[in-house]
Amino acid sequence: MEKEKLLEEITKNIKDCKKCRLCRSATNAVPGEGNINSKMVFIGEAPGFNEDVTGRPFVGRAGKLLETFLKEIGYKREDVWIGNIVKHRPPENRDPLPDEIATCKPFLELQLKTIHPVLVVTLGRFAMNYFYRDGKISRDRGNLIRAADFLIYPVYHPAAALRGNSMMNDLRVDFKRIPEVLKKAEEILELGVKLPQISGQDFDGQLNLGL
Questions:
Q1: pLDDT at res. 210
Q2: pTM for the full model?
C-alpha cells in the first residue's frame, strides 16, 4: 500500500478509535497533518482547545508561534509534518496519563514508520519522554539524541515558551539550529554512524554530538 493511502487508513482508524477515555470528552480526533515526505516531523504532547475544535494540530497561540519559528528557518507548516503523541484532547488540557499515551502509541508508531523522517523534533517533555524515557527537557534540549530507531532533537514546547521569556529565547535559539541539525542527522544516517543510546544512568553531560 502506498504511503498516502496507508496514512489515510491510519487517520481513519484514529478518528474511529474508542479505546480510551479521552474520546468521550473530545470533540474531534487530531491525527496530525502536513508533508508526508518531509525529512522532519514535529511531535507535541496532545491537542488543546483549538485543536479539539478544528481537528488540526497546533492551530492556537502555540501553533502560531511554531509557524513563526518555522518561517524564521525558511519553512512553512505545510513543508513539514506535525502531530502529537496523544490524538484526543485531555479534559481541561491536563497532562496525558500513562495509559492514554500507551493506547495512542501504535498510531504514532505507524505514522512515523510510514513517513520515515530523518529528524524528529520533539516539542516539550512529554514528547521527548515518549522517545527517550530518561530525558530531562531542561538538560537535553538543543541536542541531537539517538533514541531507539530515531534521531530526535528536543526543544521546549511553544506553549511553555509563551509563559516565560527565558524559554522563549531558548526555543528561538534551538529552532535556529534546526537546519544545521537536520544536515548533521542526514550525514549520520548516510554514513551509518552509530550514536550512543543515552540513558539517565550513564548520562555524562556530553549530549552535543559534535553540534
A1: 42
A2: 0.90
